[in-house]
Design goal:
Order of helices and strands: HHHHHHHEHHEHH
CATH class: Mainly Alpha
Oligomer: single chain
Radius of gyration: 23 Å
CATH superfamily: Rhodopsin 7-helix transmembrane proteins
Number of domains: 1
Length: 327
């Protein structure tokens, strides 16, 4: 009986100062373990395929794909972070207070970088569809890489400042050994809400709304022009269908993004103090957006399917494989 009671503590040797484990039934534990492991593996695998494809094939080196690469890197890191959620199934943190603080900061920064990259992608698509003549001169590889660098740097600096108390004194908010809790005060929660959710979502919605308006207006103009010039009309129809497909993908991205991120930020908004627990359920839904991103952004494009086939068949190991035409 004494052994059973000791097994309920994260650190049995510490007894009264140790946190108690979360007691789960074997079936619930197994289901949670398998589900999280599958999501983690799928997230890392899909995003690694995007990273390898965009990095390896020269034909894919473009401003738009540089943004997809940034998104894939952040989402791949999120996939690795899910492994910490697997470790926390029993409610215990075994890696120490410093690792807890670093984990939470990294989690915040990486997910913010992912959201920031989505904003950059929306800007890229906005310029490409609304101002196609200016796109080659305005959106260059160099400018895109600078924007991506600034996005990542801002995400890390911002959240290091917001969570500096926990970085300076790790574990200050823990009530017992084996707990991983970081508290973001009300002001910090509002700042994070504005910079990581309200601001990006507003920008994305405004830009995507403008894209839809342009596509619809051009489609209407195209219909009136088809009757006059049949050949030109057929070419225009093809172009407009491509634009409508791009607009549809963007709409799907917005809906999925809102579904996956709203619950977490609603918790932050409603709480007087945003207590960030590493085992928070809302984190899991937030993480799952990183699993869906490569499916939405990459699987809709034929070049991704061709690249995956070449990667899985090890064709990329051949000489001059970087010059393979995958578009």
């Amino acid at each position: 009986m004494e052994t059973f009671e000791e097994d309920e503590f994260c650190f049995p040797q510490l007894l009264n100062s140790s946190c108690r484990k979360t007691m789960l039934s074997p079936s619930v534990f197994l289901l949670s373990y398998v589900s999280l492991s599958f999501i983690s593996l799928l997230t890392v695998t899909l995003n690694l395929l995007v990273i390898i494809a965009v990095s390896h094939f020269k034909k894919l080196h473009s401003p738009t794909n540089t943004l997809l690469l940034s998104l894939a890197v952040s989402d791949c890191m999120v996939g690795f972070l899910i492994s910490f959620q697997i470790m926390l199934l029993d409610g215990c943190w075994y890696l120490g207070d410093s690792m807890c603080a670093l984990y939470v900061v990294l989690d915040y920064a990486v997910t913010s970088a992912s959201i920031g990259t989505m904003v950059l992608i929306s800007v890229d698509r906005y310029v490409a569809i609304c101002y196609p003549l200016y796109y080659p001169s305005k959106v260059t590889d160099t400018r895109t890489k600078i924007c991506v660098f600034l996005c990542w740097m801002f995400a890390f600096l911002c959240h290091c400042l917001l969570l500096k108390d926990s970085l300076q004194k790790p574990g200050r908010y823990n009530s017992c050994f084996g707990e991983c809790v970081v508290v973001l005060d009300y002001g910090g929660g509002i700042v994070d809400l504005l910079l990581s959710f309200i601001g990006p979502v507003t920008a994305i919605l405004v830009l995507y709304l403008r894209v839809f308006v342009v596509v619809v207006s051009q489609a209407q103009a195209m219909k009136s022009h088809v009757a006059t010039v049949s050949l030109q009309g057929s070419v225009t129809v093809t172009a407009k269908k491509s634009e409508m497909k791009a607009a549809l993908i963007l709409g799907i991205v917005v809906v999925v993004f809102l579904i996956c991120t709203c619950p977490y930020f609603c918790v932050i908004l409603m709480a007087e103090d945003a207590e960030v627990s590493a085992s928070s359920v809302t984190f899991l839904l937030f993480y799952f957006n990183s699993t869906l991103n490569p499916l939405i952004y990459a699987l809709f494009y034929p070049w991704f399917r061709k690249s995956v086939k070449l990667i899985l068949t090890l064709q990329i190991l051949k000489s001059n494989s970087t010059d393979t035409f995958v578009l």
